[in-house]
Write a structure and sequence with these properties.
17% strand, two-stranded antiparallel sheet, Beta-lactamase, alpha+beta
Length: 309
Amino acid sequence: MTLRVCLALISSWALCLSPPIFGRHREVPALASVAPEAAATLPNEKLAAEILGSIQKSGAEVGVAFRTLDGKAEWFSRADDVFHAASTMKVPVMIELFHQVKQGKLKLDDSLTVKNEFHSLVDGSIYTLDAADDSEADLYKAVGQTHTLSQLCELMITVSSNFATNLLIEMENIRATVHALHADGMSVLRGVEDNKAYEKGMNNTTTARGLLILLEAIAKGEAVDADSSRQMVEILARQTFNEAIPAGLPPGTRVAHKTGELPKVHHDAAIVYGPHPFVLVILVRGMAESKDSAALMADIARRIYQSGE
């Protein structure tokens, strides 16, 4: 029996024991889309079993996508399950910004007036954001002033500003750009805090595989172009929320990543520059305490990193 078959059997066993996912989410067994002749999986069966055991013990629904940048190792578990994207949807917004800069439609030093007024996807009605519900408050003090697109992008990624995101997300073609990168698991429908759309189930969603594809393109210099990808890596590396994947890595390890968090939803999607650089995406749903979901993600990251040392 090959290692890949063993891993698939272990993954399928774990899925049978795991709690049912929400009815609107399609369950896809781990490794289901990986062809038999694809790259090698995790170094050993024990590692896969340990990771799946930790996930099972947590009681959460977890999607994992892992692949080294050289393509020699990869592993997927529930990587095509659909999750609320939370703030991970800001990654494709950043990619589209750089795409439009490349096209000459925008410049990073272009200025945009800060205006707290947005239109609902449902009916076009106006809604505003509240600083109390955002992870960054200073931008709210700048209403009526101007910020450059570069400054807004920095706030959107490094401190996960919802306000900055909504100012940028009015750019067209985000979904087309995601599709062009073959990352259709990520779906960006609307801005942040559009409560009318939320109540109707019109949400931004993602899969672990979709996010992996986007970050892999950035890491390999293939998202827009090499220079744009390099700039995006630098922005992602300045992320200030580091309690999940980075917490499981040796101190000083360079990580370019984006987190996302909502009640009982906690994600981290990262490019990890270790001895064998890799992309790791972990999506978690169903854990009440973010410290617990962060600890789970850190544990998975630690196991995978150590397996490649």
